[in-house]
Write a structure and sequence with these properties.
The chain is α/β, with parallel strands linked by helices and 144 residues long. The protein is 44% helix and 17% strand. Helix 4 packs parallel to helix 5. Bound molecules: D-ribose (RB5). The site of D-ribose has 8 residues, from helix 3.
């Protein structure tokens, strides 16, 4: 798969872990995030990732900040982006099956009970179910 990723200063180590893990699994990752801990504003990284995704050719995007919250909110304000903040294997799977999330977010300062790469694997394995969920996702997309 081809994946765009972006992060702020609160998630540099997590971003590096994700990029290394995805590349080791044979995926292509385009990194638009920051690579040091100089303070930046996460809406800028979310906007950059969304703009890159909208160019086409990407399967999905990953955005990371300290909590995963701010950059998720910012991503969801970008046209065409449905970003899910993933916490566990259930949310990782269901955000694809029911919401057709095209972005997922994580927090670099969160102590997850499941490895983030396992959650990303669960998201990547899942498939959108369509049907009644397609109607609901269309309503989401019509909102902005
Ligand atoms: C930056 O200190 C922090 O606020 C940001 O990474 C994120 O957690 C915001 O939601």
């Amino acid at each position: 798969m081809r994946i765009v990723i972006a992060n702020d200063h609160g998630a540099v180590a997590l971003k590096n872990e994700i990029v290394a893990g995805l590349k080791a699994r044979g995926h292509e990752v385009v990194n638009l995030g920051v690579d040091d801990e100089t303070s930046v504003d996460y809406p800028d990284q979310a906007a950059a990732a969304a703009a890159e995704y909208r160019k086409g050719g990407y399967d999905f995007g990953i955005v990371c900040c300290g909590s995963g919250v701010g950059i998720s909110i910012a991503a969801n304000k970008q046209k065409g982006i449905r970003c899910a903040q993933v916490f566990d294997l259930y949310t990782a799977e269901m955000c694809k099956r029911h919401n057709n999330a095209n972005f997922i977010s994580f927090g670099g300062r969160i102590a997850y009970s499941v490895p983030v790469l396992d959650m990303i694997d669960a998201y990547m394995r899942a498939e959108f179910e369509g049907g009644r969920h397609a109607r609901r996702v269309q309503k989401l997309d019509d909102m902005c």
